[in-house]
UniProtKB/TrEMBL annotation:
<keyword id="KW-0456">Lyase</keyword>
<protein>
    <recommendedName>
        <fullName>Inosose dehydratase</fullName>
        <ecNumber>4.2.1.44</ecNumber>
    </recommendedName>
</protein>
<comment type="pathway">
    <text>Polyol metabolism; myo-inositol degradation into acetyl-CoA; acetyl-CoA from myo-inositol: step 2/7.</text>
</comment>
<dbReference type="GO" id="GO:0019310">
    <property type="term" value="P:inositol catabolic process"/>
</dbReference>
<feature type="domain" description="Xylose isomerase-like TIM barrel">
    <location>
        <begin position="40"/>
        <end position="286"/>
    </location>
</feature>
<keyword id="KW-0464">Manganese</keyword>
<dbReference type="InterPro" id="IPR036237">
    <property type="entry name" value="Xyl_isomerase-like_sf"/>
</dbReference>
<keyword id="KW-0170">Cobalt</keyword>
<dbReference type="InterPro" id="IPR023952">
    <property type="entry name" value="IolE"/>
</dbReference>
<dbReference type="Pfam" id="PF01261">
    <property type="entry name" value="AP_endonuc_2"/>
</dbReference>
<dbReference type="InterPro" id="IPR013022">
    <property type="entry name" value="Xyl_isomerase-like_TIM-brl"/>
</dbReference>
<dbReference type="GO" id="GO:0030145">
    <property type="term" value="F:manganese ion binding"/>
</dbReference>
<dbReference type="InterPro" id="IPR050312">
    <property type="entry name" value="IolE/XylAMocC-like"/>
</dbReference>
<comment type="similarity">
    <text>Belongs to the IolE/MocC family.</text>
</comment>
<dbReference type="InterPro" id="IPR030823">
    <property type="entry name" value="IolE/MocC"/>
</dbReference>
<dbReference type="GO" id="GO:0050114">
    <property type="term" value="F:myo-inosose-2 dehydratase activity"/>
</dbReference>
Amino acid sequence: MNESKIRLGIAPIAWTNDDMPELGKENTFEQCISEMALSGYVGTEIGNKYPKDPDVLRPYLDIRGLSVASAWFSAFLTTKPYEETEQAFIEHMNFLHAMGAKVIVVSEQGHSIQGQMDLAIFKEKPVFSASDWQALATGLERLGALANAKGMTIVYHHHMGTGVQTTEEITRLMDLTDPEKVSLLFDTGHLVFSGEDPIEIYQKYQERIKHIHFKDIREQIARQVSTTEQSFLNAVKSGVFTVPGDGMIDFAPIWEVIKSSDYEGWIVVEAEQDPAQANPFEYAVKARDYIHEITSI
């Protein structure tokens, strides 16, 4: 494996949370990207405090040696007319293209409960109907074709509290979509939190995995979230997520399957926590040291 083909980035959600902006509201955009660079990362995803004009954003990142790995896009293919999602997607895609990104993170938010503070993440999890699945698959292929025309790829983000979370649901989505148009994002934290086997998922879909999130889980808190029927947002506030090397996941065997697959692309550290409880810079360094220890990257 040519490990130089893998670049390591980190998501800004540890500094300021996109879903709960009150978490980390005191942390500035420049502090965030400066601490990313100081921690040894070369890439970032896009947060809500980032300038959305490429000509404004680019100098901030260039001087710190940072590139844009990708950015989250919320699709509503199961609940709104396709044209609404497409219009927003094209604007998002063009921004990422201007920033040099090659992949676009897409997650279906139709029926999602991940942003609902009062709905239990496991008990109230949405289940797609047959028509939902068809609308999702067809819509994603159309978005994928738009991305392909720009030399880009959409990577689907399986996610807690959505209709594509479990192994069965990931399998169904992969079976329904054209591999040339729809790729997969591999997120260790969401798989383990959901009760899935990340190595099984990686090995099964390694040819379609074009983007990776390294996220860890605090096992005791994850159990409490389930038994006390907490929502996704409350789980985040409780500290269910942390950085690699600080939770229950052993990333060494996961790295071995990634390494053996000749993966090329980004590995992005992502761990949404309350910055008042988990200093973002400290945890970024902790993750960087751990990843270097197991991967030599």
